[in-house]
Amino acid sequence: MTRDLTRDLSPDQSSDQITDADPIVSSTPGRASETAPENAWLKGDDDDELALVDRWWRAANYLSVGQIYLRSNPLLREPLGASHTKSRLLGHWGTTPGLNFVYAHLNRVIRRDSQNMLFIAGPGHGGPAVVANAWLEGTYSEIYSNVGDDEPGMAELFRQFSYPGGIPSHAAPETPGSISEGGELGYSLAHAYGSVFDNPDLITVVVIGDGEAETGPLAASWHSHNFLDPVADGAVLPILHLNGYKIANPTILARMPEAQLEQLLRGYGHEPHFVTVADPDDTAAAHRDFAAVLDRCLTEIRKIQAARRSATTDGGTGNGESPGGGAAGDGTHDDGAARWPVIVLRSPKGWTGPKVVDGLPVEGTWRSHQVPLSEVRTNPEHLAQLGSGSNRTGRMSSSTTPGGCGRTLRRTRPSAPPDERHPVRERRHAAAGPQAAAVRGPRGRGGTAGSGAGQRDDHAGVVAPRRDQREP
Ligand SMILES: Cc1ncc(C[n+]2csc(CCOP(=O)(O)OP(=O)(O)O)c2C)c(N)n1
Ligand SMILES: [Mg+2]
Prior knowledge:
Blueprint: H1 3-8, H2 15-20, H3 45-69, H4 96-113, E1 116-121, H5 127-137, H6 139-143, H7 151-160, H8 188-196, E2 202-209, H9 216-221, E3 235-242, E4 245-246, E5 249-250, H10 252-255, H11 258-267, E6 271-276, H12 283-313, E7 341-346, E8 356-357, E9 360-361, H13 380-388, H14 402-412, H15 423-431
Parallel strand pairs: 1-2, 2-3, 3-7, 6-7
Antiparallel strand pairs: 4-5, 8-9
Helix pairs in contact: 3-4, 3-5, 3-7, 3-12, 3-14, 4-5
C-alpha cells in the first residue's frame, strides 16, 4: 500500500536481493548496503540528513501497513497471497503516515541537539505508527523479547496487532513509553503540558488531529500555555495536523481560511507556523519545509527560555516578564508573556497510500481513514494493489526496505545511556511531592496575569500527586 510495498518489496524480488539489502534479517551484517538511496534531491549534508529521515519514514510506513494487513510473510519473500493477510482487518491507516513523518523528523533534532523530547500522538488510533517507530528504534524488542528485531520478530509484530491475544490498535498502556491513551480523543495537549511541568529540559511535541481539535477538552487545552513557567517548566510544541477529515467528515479547522486559522491560534497566544504538503508526490519538498519550520520553532522555544531563565538569574521573576520589557514581535505578547510556537501541518490523509481504489480517490480523502484496501482476502485487485502498489515515486532503491534501513537507521536513532532512559517516568517521579502539588496560576506558578497562586480554589492547574500519594 505504501511506496515501500510497491517497488522495494515487490513479490518479483528474489530473496537474495532482499537479503542483501536487509541487514536486520541478515545473518551476515557486513553485507548490507549502507548508502543512502539515490534520490535526485540529495545534495548537501542537510539533504543527506533528510534522506535518512525519509528512509525512516518509509520504513515506519511499511511497518504500519504490515501491522494492519499481514499475519505472515512480513518481508514478502513469497508472492503475497490472501493467506498471508489477516481475515479481519482493523486499524487506522489515514493518520499513520503523518504521525510517522513527524516522528522521523523529531529523531533528527533529538540526535542533533541531544534534546530531551517526548512525542505524543493525539490521533492515538494511529497505533501502528507508534508501535512501528518503537520497533524500528529497538525499544519494542527491548521491552517485549517475544517481538525481536529480526524477521521472526517482524512477523510477530505484524501478527499481534489488533489480533486475538495481541495488542490494541490504538496507542495503549502497553505501547512503550505511552502516557496518552489513544482510544478517546481530546486529551493529548493537556497530557503534553502535564509532562513538561517541572521538567525544564523537556520539550514535548504533540500531534493534534484536526478532528480531535474539535473535542471540548482539546479546544480548551489551547489555553494551557498560560500555566507554563518558562523557567521551571519545559515547553510544548503542538503540531495541529490538518489532514482534512475526521472519519468520514471534513474538519472545521482544515476548511477554515488560513488567515482566520492563523488569527485563531494567535488569539490563543501562539505563534503559528504553516507547513503545507501541496504535492503528495514531492516528499522532498515536504521534508525540507517541515525540517526548516521545526528548527525555527525549536529556536523560538529556546530563545524564550533563555531570555526568561537569564532574567531570573539576574533577579527577575521569570514569570511572564521579558527581559527587555516585552515588546510584541520579539516572541512575546504586549504584556511580555511568551508567545510559544505552534506548527500547522497540512498533509494528505493516507499520504503515500493508494491514490485510487475501486475507481474512487483514496489518498487525501476520508476513504483512507481506516483500511483502504478492505477486501484483500476476497478481491484479487485489492490484494494485487497491496502487494505491488502504485510505485508512484519510482526513485527509491531496495535499500529502503525496513531491513535495508536497519543498519543505517539504527545508527541514526536517538540513544541515551541506560540510566537516562525513560526520562519521563523518572522525571514524573522526581517532580512529584509537595512542590509539584503547588497551585499554578496563569503564566506559571505565581503568575503575573492577575489570578496567580492563591486565587484559585478549584482543581484546574493543580499537578496531580503521584498515584501512591493519593487518598485510597
Ligand atoms: C472522544 C472521541 N470521540 C470520537 C472518537 C471516534 N473517532 C476515532 S478516530 C476519529 C476521527 C479523528 O479525526 P482526527 O483527529 O482528525 O484524526 P485523523 O484524521 O488523523 O485520523 C473519531 C471521531 C474517539 N476516538 N474519541
Ligand atoms: Mg484528521
